[in-house]
Amino acid sequence: MATIELAGLRIRPTGAGLAADVDGVDLRALTDGEFGALRRALHDHLVLRFRGYSIDDVEFQHLAGRFGELYASPGYTRSRAVYNPAAPMVTIVSNVVEDGAPIGEHGDGELLWHTDLGFEEVPSALTFLLAREVPATGGNTSFANMYKALDSLAPATRERIARLKSKHQASHSSYGAKRPGFRDIETDDPRELPGPIHPLVRTHPETGRKALYLGRRFGGYVPGLPLAKSEALLDELWAAVDRPEHVWTQQWQVGDLVIWDNRCTMHRRDPFTGQGRRRMHRLMTKGERPV
Ligand code: OGA
Ligand code: MN
């Protein structure tokens, strides 16, 4: 796909199911015109990558804050409250352990397909991940285009799910472990697991486009359906997520900043056990109740 110029920004689509590289802009001093172009690029490409930049945490927090109200993960998912007092909203995703305690979330295992904070009533809108340290191999992050996932479904299925909802279970994390606060839960019956109920098809509040909206596969449930029918429907919907033509995979380099929109994408991460240190700085903006 050709490079597009917008308000001086160079936007190079990856040619995959989503995502574009952006350069030609000073991330420390975005003009209103450039910021508008960035928002538009995010609406068009769903995931943006900035490579070859170097911004500090304060600049990072300032940049992300232009896109919306910043919102840190709920306390129970964080290992440390504040990593950098100068940029208190920045949280850490890392396998690094210091003084016997992890400096951030998520360890070194696989993260299964998910959206950020989908297990809350009001999930996050955008996530910003800035690579500070990366291992030589492993830890790639893949993204799926959920507009395309919806469009690829059989018309009868699209019609069927237009009014259905699903549970985004809250008790287990993206690596399958029980979250603090949910340790007493013993059932793995999707009907019993706690979590918010969100529409299966959501309308993006800014683009007006409809996207398939799924929680994690484990513990997902479509209320109103017998369990077997819910499982069959969710399996059918999930088969549309990771088709090669819907996906793009980011191989991280130090300094890479990736912004994604949780309202129309899902993401997963490869494991990198034994591959060395990985430290990502993360910010999120507050979203809206999915409708
Ligand atoms: C996240 C996440 C993926 C990664 O921070 O929400 O899913 O590659 N991270 O670490
Ligand atoms: Mn995530």
Features of this protein?
globular; single chain; alpha+beta; four-stranded antiparallel β-sheet; 291 residues
In short:
The protein is an alpha+beta fold.
Topology at a glance:
Elements (H helix, E strand, L loop, with lengths): L3 E3 L2 E5 L6 E4 L8 H14 L1 E4 L6 H9 L25 E4 L2 E2 L2 E2 L2 E2 L4 E4 L9 E10 L7 E5 H6 L3 H7 L3 E3 L29 E3 L1 E3 L6 E3 L14 H12 L8 E4 L6 E5 L3 E5 L9 E8 L5
Parallel strand pairs: 3-4, 5-8
Antiparallel strand pairs: 1-2, 2-3, 4-17, 5-19, 6-7, 9-18, 10-17, 10-19, 11-16, 11-18, 12-13, 14-15
The chain binds N-oxalylglycine and manganese (II) ion.
The site of manganese (II) ion has 3 residues, from loops.
